[in-house]
Amino acid sequence: MTDWKPRTKAVHSGIRRSGYGEVSEAIFLTQGFVYDTAEAARERFEQPGDDEFIYARYGNPTVAMFQDRIAALEGAEAAFATASGMAAVNGALMSMLKAGDHVVSARALFGSCLYILEDILTRFGVEVTFVDGTDLDQWRAAIRPDTRAVFMETVSNPTLEVIDLRAVAGLAHEVGALVVADNVFATPVFSRAFEMGADVVIYSATKHIDGQGRALGGVILGSEAFIRKTVEPYMKHTGGAMSPFTAWIMLKGLETLDLRVKAQSATAARLAHALRGHARLSRVIFPGLEDHPQHTLAAAQMSGPGTMLALDLHGGQEAAFRFLDALGIVTISNNLGDAKSIATHPATTTHQRLTPETRAALGIGPGMVRLSVGLEDADDLLDDLSQALDRA
Ligand SMILES: *Cc1c(COP(=O)(O)O)cnc(C)c1O
After folding, report:
1. Which positions does the record annotate as the modified residue N6-(pyridoxal phosphate)lysine (predicted)?
2. What is the mean pLDDT of the chain?
């Protein structure tokens, strides 16, 4: 099974068939499990056996199938599935850190990730140093002998900065710090984050893994010891578990993940090349374009450029809004990785909470539009984007 290629793992890994021999994974919509005897209950609470369950907050057969499948796909020893991507980020960091610990984090983060690092962790006495994630000298200067963890989005939201995971991991490991990578934009299809040195990998399964806008979910992947001894006790007592129904959606999402992400990425590349140099745009940001600041790194670190683009329109917010309102196929929303192409205005939505100065420092201007490229026909998308740019 470990020899299987990713697409085989994505379809077959982790299956637990019930006595009925069903083909498609069963949804075990049960919160609890019965014991034949009082003694059996006592034993299971003392030490659950392999594939024995107690309560769905701790684990559930459908959730376990999803965990085993994504762990196999990522080459991780273990996984814990969570109610959302943010439950995964929070669970990974809160379970491992304590007052007095030091964390170094890239500054270019999804708003809620920034909130956990900047507002929550610091409230509990964790010291956090933010760096420009693309500048290795800043990582080198910030990482100290007492640094317990480094955190980054391997490809940042929405500016698509690519972080040199191997180099940052090298610096972190010199002082024994754990490398925690939010790998959502890089996707499980294009990134081998563990091979690059990540110790803990986090996904919002809401994004490409579901990929059809149906359910919130997340996952923390890592070593058996980290997941079982650090993450699991924290998660099972604080209640951030994934629901069995969501796990079933995510299992089905994994089956088609490779096909969807590769198709979406090919369309994203086509759009990026076609729109580059457009008179209404000051910039097209896409890791697959030669003028992307980390183009070479992205090509070395990822087997594909991803499904996300950022467009910077001349004319600021008014132009961006006119463009968004003129779109016919592409929807205005804030999910990403979806089958439906989605456009977002980060400055007034996902990154509204930041001050204009912070946004400017992160390169999120008023004319920036984030585009998540879906599964529609590339020609239709190009027509739609072109006519909307004409009206911007
Ligand atoms: C969406 C997202 C999250 C949060 O995931 P949810 O499932 O919405 O909680 C975390 N990190 C990144 C990079 C994201 O894009």
Report:
1. 207
2. 96
Looking at ligand 1, which atom is closest to the CA of residue 184? 13
> What does the pLDDT read at residue 1?
64
Domain that holds residue 348: 258-391
Overall pTM surpassing 0.85 (yes/no): yes
Residues 234 and 355 in one domain: no
Rounded-to-integer distance, Cα 312 and Cα 333, Å = 18
> What are the strands of the beta sheet with 281-285, ordered from one edge?
281-285, 308-313, 368-372, 342-344, 331-332
Q: Is the CB of 157 under 6 A from ligand 1?
A: yes
* Ligand 1 atom having least distance to the Cα of 217: 7
* Position 242 pLDDT exceeds 90: yes
Give a yes or no: residue 374 inside a domain. Answer: yes
d(CA 246, CA 240): 13
In a domain, 47, yes or no: yes
The answer to whether the CB of 154 is under 6 A from ligand 1 is: no
